[in-house]
């Protein structure tokens, strides 16, 4: 059980953003991805999650071991907190809805519709989803957006608990989560060089 | 050297640039000879009078309306399987040409139908099928225009073309089932059975068909070249933004 | 899969889910056509099969863009794509949910609207039978169209343009069943062809739709 990324190149809109990205993530470890806006953090994470194809390189992870959380939380406004979470638990075939709500401090809100949650509460609910997927590798894109200081600390605790159970986390963030044990990978050096006349087969489009 | 090498945009541009004048010239010769011969040097039909001469436009354009779709289907499959950009762009380039041929077939059909059947339009299965084909072309072109990312658009339109082909054939038979129709059966492929078309008409018709095929090739080559240039331009612009 | 079906049904029935809009539209068509065509029973009886089928088809079309667009906007589709359920299964379940909230109710209320349009007596059974056999195809073809246009803002009109030509065979055979049924003629040929199109669409289109969604997500 390990996530290994080998000389990965990713592209958005036909333009290669990052290339030669290599790292490995062992159980119990977290990796923070940093880099300026537009460097390709989201694209890299979506590629790892299998949502878009890689331009080159390889991602090896056990099948169905990744779960992805991004800017959009996948919440349904007309469903309650518990229903939203229960749906994702059922999709992944695991339980623990009550436990997930307790750990993300959502128990008081369990019967409230997602439409009536504040932005931060929605975010907490979106992150609580990670706990009901039963998947070891968390791929998180700016997970702390709209969270207050207390919630950031709460979430850092949840991530730490996940790591303690042998889980892994890959987090793109600008905010210091307080996960001092996590390694940091700066993506700026992997920025794809603009190549002129690469001579590839479809060169005219490169 | 494999055929696929011409799927390289650069090779394709070189080859098509060389071929284009010849195709253009041959198209002009075939169309001028075929149409002049057909319109002015053939006898009037004893029943249909001079209206019959519209077959020199109607039949070739109707054939090419269908063939263009088939060509798009093949190009789409090549794109989906081998990921050659030129193939996807050729399919994109062919669609408006195919739609135009469909429109020509419908309009000439209406012009012919008026004196023959006494009506501009009849819900005849053949006419209806062409109308539906025009809708398929419209949807295909609209999807190309609506999707911004060119590779996404190429993938989606290719899938639409495949599914659309199946449904277009289904529609053809459904429409046949729905109304037996006024339109005569296609006679062109029955030649040799008992000469359903007089040789005086047949030869210029074949020349016209050849002219339309060449015209289609010519237009698709030209439009594909334009698409390739447009792609290259946007790639260069994207590169400049990054640098 | 069951969870997804239940969620989609729940979303459809809760406030703002749009359940019933299709039915109301179907009713409106059945009311407006006699107002436009005139009240003569013989004329209405003649056009009733076609009007009912076109009405059902358009009512179905109304809610198609909701199949994937809402899940795309709120990120659920990304999460479903990374979930243990294959995307083909997601498409099939969502198309089925769409049928349960549109096609099935349309099938059930169609006889009532048949009365409004003076559909001849023997036609009712075949109206229900043809809608039951044909509306699943409308939902699954619609799901394919919705999958193609999911990434496009305000793709509703484009969706109609893409889907309506694909509806042609279903419409022709469906209306033919009712027409023949109402006239007391043999209906088995068009009914079987209609069911065949439905079966083929159900078998193959989820794969095409899933491929389109994957393209749109990347």
UniProtKB/TrEMBL annotation, chain A:
<feature type="domain" description="ABC transporter">
    <location>
        <begin position="3"/>
        <end position="206"/>
    </location>
</feature>
<keyword id="KW-0067">ATP-binding</keyword>
<dbReference type="GO" id="GO:0016887">
    <property type="term" value="F:ATP hydrolysis activity"/>
</dbReference>
<dbReference type="InterPro" id="IPR003593">
    <property type="entry name" value="AAA+_ATPase"/>
</dbReference>
<keyword id="KW-0547">Nucleotide-binding</keyword>
<dbReference type="InterPro" id="IPR027417">
    <property type="entry name" value="P-loop_NTPase"/>
</dbReference>
<dbReference type="GO" id="GO:0017004">
    <property type="term" value="P:cytochrome complex assembly"/>
</dbReference>
<dbReference type="InterPro" id="IPR017871">
    <property type="entry name" value="ABC_transporter-like_CS"/>
</dbReference>
<keyword id="KW-0472">Membrane</keyword>
<keyword id="KW-0813">Transport</keyword>
<dbReference type="InterPro" id="IPR003439">
    <property type="entry name" value="ABC_transporter-like_ATP-bd"/>
</dbReference>
<dbReference type="InterPro" id="IPR005895">
    <property type="entry name" value="ABC_transptr_haem_export_CcmA"/>
</dbReference>
<protein>
    <submittedName>
        <fullName>Heme ABC exporter ATP-binding protein CcmA</fullName>
    </submittedName>
</protein>
<dbReference type="GO" id="GO:0005524">
    <property type="term" value="F:ATP binding"/>
</dbReference>
<keyword id="KW-1278">Translocase</keyword>
TrEMBL record, chain B:
<feature type="transmembrane region" description="Helical">
    <location>
        <begin position="61"/>
        <end position="81"/>
    </location>
</feature>
<dbReference type="GO" id="GO:0017004">
    <property type="term" value="P:cytochrome complex assembly"/>
</dbReference>
<feature type="transmembrane region" description="Helical">
    <location>
        <begin position="93"/>
        <end position="113"/>
    </location>
</feature>
<dbReference type="InterPro" id="IPR045062">
    <property type="entry name" value="Cyt_c_biogenesis_CcsA/CcmC"/>
</dbReference>
<comment type="function">
    <text>Required for the export of heme to the periplasm for the biogenesis of c-type cytochromes.</text>
</comment>
<protein>
    <recommendedName>
        <fullName>Heme exporter protein C</fullName>
    </recommendedName>
</protein>
<dbReference type="GO" id="GO:0015232">
    <property type="term" value="F:heme transmembrane transporter activity"/>
</dbReference>
<dbReference type="GO" id="GO:0020037">
    <property type="term" value="F:heme binding"/>
</dbReference>
<keyword id="KW-0813">Transport</keyword>
<comment type="similarity">
    <text>Belongs to the CcmC/CycZ/HelC family.</text>
</comment>
<feature type="transmembrane region" description="Helical">
    <location>
        <begin position="125"/>
        <end position="144"/>
    </location>
</feature>
<dbReference type="InterPro" id="IPR002541">
    <property type="entry name" value="Cyt_c_assembly"/>
</dbReference>
<feature type="domain" description="Cytochrome c assembly protein">
    <location>
        <begin position="5"/>
        <end position="183"/>
    </location>
</feature>
<feature type="transmembrane region" description="Helical">
    <location>
        <begin position="156"/>
        <end position="175"/>
    </location>
</feature>
<keyword id="KW-0812">Transmembrane</keyword>
From TrEMBL, chain C:
<dbReference type="GO" id="GO:1903607">
    <property type="term" value="P:cytochrome c biosynthetic process"/>
</dbReference>
<comment type="function">
    <text>Required for the export of heme to the periplasm for the biogenesis of c-type cytochromes.</text>
</comment>
<feature type="transmembrane region" description="Helical">
    <location>
        <begin position="123"/>
        <end position="150"/>
    </location>
</feature>
<dbReference type="GO" id="GO:0005886">
    <property type="term" value="C:plasma membrane"/>
</dbReference>
<keyword id="KW-0813">Transport</keyword>
<feature type="transmembrane region" description="Helical">
    <location>
        <begin position="12"/>
        <end position="35"/>
    </location>
</feature>
<feature type="transmembrane region" description="Helical">
    <location>
        <begin position="157"/>
        <end position="175"/>
    </location>
</feature>
<keyword id="KW-1133">Transmembrane helix</keyword>
<keyword id="KW-0201">Cytochrome c-type biogenesis</keyword>
<dbReference type="Pfam" id="PF03379">
    <property type="entry name" value="CcmB"/>
</dbReference>
<keyword id="KW-0997">Cell inner membrane</keyword>
<feature type="transmembrane region" description="Helical">
    <location>
        <begin position="187"/>
        <end position="213"/>
    </location>
</feature>
<keyword id="KW-1003">Cell membrane</keyword>
<protein>
    <recommendedName>
        <fullName>Heme exporter protein B</fullName>
    </recommendedName>
</protein>
<dbReference type="GO" id="GO:0017004">
    <property type="term" value="P:cytochrome complex assembly"/>
</dbReference>
